[in-house]
Amino acid sequence: MLLELKNIFKWVNSGGQRIFLLKDINLSVEEGEFISVMGPSGSGKSTLLNVIGMLDTFDEGEYHFLDESVHTLKEKYRSNLYKEYIGFVFQSYHLLDDLTVYENLEMPLLYKKYKGTERKAMVGDMLDRFSIVGKKDLFPAQLSGGQQQLVGVARALIGKPKLILADEPTGNLNSQQSEEIMGLFKRLNEEDNVTIIQVTHSEKNAAYGSRIINLLDGRMI
Question: Which residues contact 113 (CB under 8 A, 6 or more apart)?
Fold first, then answer.
């Protein structure tokens, strides 16, 4: 078992009332699964992804990741855990504008204390794999949307995560680029046994998953 959410609730207080963002979520994910999360805007999809990614806390329930009880961990241990095992791919890329493609890719490896020679080899491998060697000294603003997203995916993968969390990963891409990114996820899932949880509005993208979870008003339906 990679992760398990038990009776997760998350709410905000507004005008003396609780507004639930997540209601009684129960979810078990095995290693090597490819899960698509669907639902209308405001249904809690991104919140769920952020909770799984440990970027967001929750108000009630239990979260177990590998053999750790995330709900009892201090902030520092939580962030070590997700830096070690989780890669994020966001719709808005989240690349650092003042770093080159090479430096953006190297960033997660600095957190993990890889040696310089190892970092160089790993970044080189990713540049090759994504056919962006010629872009390594460019800044994000000099790239097209599709290229930026490729760099975003490469950065998520470089530390060899067990889990990739993708929030509308093809939201800003044309159909050819979308297919390229989704094909890449499929290969990673099948060949490298990387577990993937993606949030998507697209039926076509959702179909790449082996399981679809539907959310409505913070509940799984």
Answer: none
